[in-house]
Design a protein that fits this description.
Layout: H1 13-23, H2 41-45, E1 48-49, E2 57-58, E3 65-70, H3 71-77, H4 82-85, E4 93-96, E5 102-105, E6 118-121, E7 124-125, E8 146-153, H5 157-160, E9 167-173, E10 181-189, E11 192-203, E12 209-220, E13 224-225, E14 235-248, E15 251-264, E16 272-286, E17 292-306, E18 310-324, E19 331-348, E20 353-354, E21 358-374, E22 378-389, E23 393-407, E24 410-421, H6 425-428, E25 430-432, E26 440-441, E27 449-460, E28 466-486, E29 489-512, E30 515-529, E31 544-552, E32 558-567, E33 587-599, E34 602-609, E35 615-616, E36 631-634, E37 636-644
Parallel strand pairs: 6-9, 26-29
Antiparallel strand pairs: 1-2, 3-8, 4-5, 6-7, 8-9, 10-11, 10-37, 11-12, 12-14, 13-36, 14-15, 15-16, 16-17, 17-18, 18-19, 19-21, 20-25, 21-22, 22-23, 23-24, 24-27, 25-26, 27-28, 28-29, 29-30, 30-31, 31-32, 32-33, 33-34, 34-37, 35-36
Length: 645
Amino acid sequence: MTSAAPSVSLARPVIAVLMAAALSPACAQEVPATNLADLSLEELSAVRITSASRKEERLADTPASVYVITGDMLQRSAVRTLPEALRLAPNLQVAQTTSFQYAISARGHNDITTNKLLVMIDGRTVFTPLYSGVFWDAQDVLLADVDRIEVISGPAGVVWGTNAVNGVINVIMKKADALSGDLVQLADGHSGRSAAWRHAGRLGASGEFAYAVYGKADSGKRTRRASGADNPDEWGHGQVGFRTSWGQDDDRYTVQGDYYRSSGEQPALVRAHLSGVNLMAHWERSLADGASLRVQGYADRTDRDLPGILVEQLNTYDLDLQYHLPKRARHETIVGGGYRYAADRVGLNGALAFLPAQRKLRWGNLFVQHEWRWQEEWRVIGGLRMESNTYTGVEWLPSVKLAWSPHSGAFWWATLARNVRAPSRIDTDVYFPAQPPYLLTGGPQFRAEVANTVETGWRMRPNAAWSWSLVGFHTQYQRLRSIDQQGATLVIGNQVHGFTQGIEAQATWLPSRDWTLEAGALLLHQEFKGGLPPQQRQGSDPTHQLRLSARWHALEQHDVQLTLRTVGRLPATISANPLTATPVPAYAVADLQWSWRPGKQVDLTVAARNLFDRRHREFGGLASPNPQDTVMLGRVVDAVLSVKF
């Protein structure tokens, strides 16, 4: 298999990926494989999702801020990586920092070490206990086989646990029994190139055993710095995997797994290496009276070698159980629990030390969620989760939602929830530099961060031509991470507090059968206090961002889409040299995609991004302590060809 790379420019990105957290301010019904442009708004609102409340429900009836990125949208956008695909969700903040690294968050706190957003792939949590976030260079899927990506902004701790503070992303792949034949996909362009192949079929006398196997290889080209020089962040990534599904009577089984291997450039001219393997099994049984039982387990291994920074080996084992009780006239109850064990070992290899070098971490949980339907229009949904972790013991996560649907085209909800962000190794075990005397140490008494959220939303579909939603939220944070002075040493503590509030808006209009117009907006206001300056800033977030999209699909074989995005100014983030910390200017970009489908088996998409903007910055901070080293993004043209056999 091709050896490829998460190019890790890392005397900057992993102190950016690990230290910035401390040093910075402070299973569902398959969506039919049809062109969604042919669906009415009523049919689109009937798309069913599972990530908001651990049960299948209509998107229109979900009491949460949700955006669904469909497989058809991914096909038309010609994106090559999962982080780029997430740009399609207007309720996320996505900023590119190198050719492979991104800062992705919901409702603020954005950084390359974002730790308040939970990310899953088919229900498998992709999570690093180093900083309670996601290494995006290790997350890859065959985008052609993605069924949908459910993006939920807002609290989800009751259903998914600690760290689902400000949102959840669940990447849901198509089941093996929804695939058939062979797929070949080739991509090339300014950002890089890739090749992928997938074969799907059935075995058994009646074809009850479905399987799919795939392989893919990607490479990313160097980005450019503000100074005009190349940034040494060329990368490549190779991955293979399989999915199987089968069932008898009321039992359904799924087993799937992936293996990947990467390597890439670093400024010190020593290559970084990454590899991993995961295996997941899922069993679901349908019982009488609408009851169901689900059991899911997975094992995950990651090896990361960043010369001059760290060497890590992480083994994770997870078991999750859920029981949906028999439905009663006005009551519906889901109970469940889970256990996760991780053995994490970080070796001395440069700038950072984690002491002790090896940690055995455990998380356990029990939860209950009950829905009471009061008359036909009103619902009350209450939930409570008890979750334990190695650092702070038991944490309680309660939530209550009130939902009202006066008629089929209107839906209102309100939410009160308490969520926590459990401590990670960087909070308690990190030491910098790797040898004494230490300038920075972890806080052994670090407590869980707390987020209390109130949210209300209104979703309307006044007629068959258009729909809109408006969500307002306010989150009060307590015990956020800070840097405290203790003699000559800085120690990580919990001295920052404050709030984030804002508005999320989405609208869709179908003025005719040939046109689809979409708009999404996010307004954000934050205030924080406590800790040493500049601890008051948590992440680097714009006060506003806006996305407008117009799609024309008049011709049967052709589809054209124009997207305009504008992102507000980012404040200056902490830097290795405070004198070089500068704000990131506001920017606006235009993207144009053209798709041609000469037949059911062939699809060609050409995407031109940043059409009217020669170069712009999307992020700053520790990833680029000198503004002249900041990655600048310019015009990009990529093409993706998919052929099915």
